[in-house]
Design brief:
The chain has a single domain, classed as Rossmann fold, CATH 3.40.50. The radius of gyration is 14 Å and the shape is globular. The protein is 51% helix and 14% strand. It is α/β, with parallel strands linked by helices.
């Protein structure tokens, strides 16, 4: 299953348990093929490596986390879509998901969630995503 996992979900997984943590476990277990672009991964790496509260995690652990995500990821170039997100800063995740024909875009961002589905990509919260795939 191909999924764009928003940075907010991956960052939450780095510091707490719950659905985001479970999703990362599925990525590392090969059940989910995460889709990244240079921009989305760069944003993730920047926040994880330079901002609080992540600086409380050993730098080597954060680097290993990013390395594992990159290793399991599929890299795609986003393609601008006609459907626009309310927040232009989140548009890259929408463009990436549709360009990659992702099954899901997993996010906690209400500006993306309000769209529900675009181009065959279902947009879900981490909890909704887990509930859906567990019933399939």
């Amino acid at each position: 299953m191909k999924a764009v996992v928003d940075s907010n979900v991956l960052l939450a997984a780095a510091i707490s348990e719950g659905p985001p943590f479970d999703i990362v476990g599925m990525v590392f277990g090969g059940q989910i093929a995460p889709i990244f672009s240079r921009e989305t991964f760069g944003e993730l790496a920047d926040v994880l490596m330079t901002r609080e509260p992540f600086d409380q995690i050993a730098r080597e652990v954060r680097a290993a986390f990013l390395g594992h995500l990159a290793e399991h990821g599929t890299w795609v170039r986003p393609v601008p879509q006609a459907v626009k997100c309310r927040d232009p800063n989140d548009q890259v995740f929408l463009d990436l998901a549709v360009a990659a024909s992702a099954d899901y875009l997993v996010t906690g961002d209400k500006d993306l969630l309000v769209l529900n589905e675009v181009g065959g990509t279902r947009i879900r919260t981490p909890r909704q995503f887990l509930d859906e795939i567990r019933t399939q």
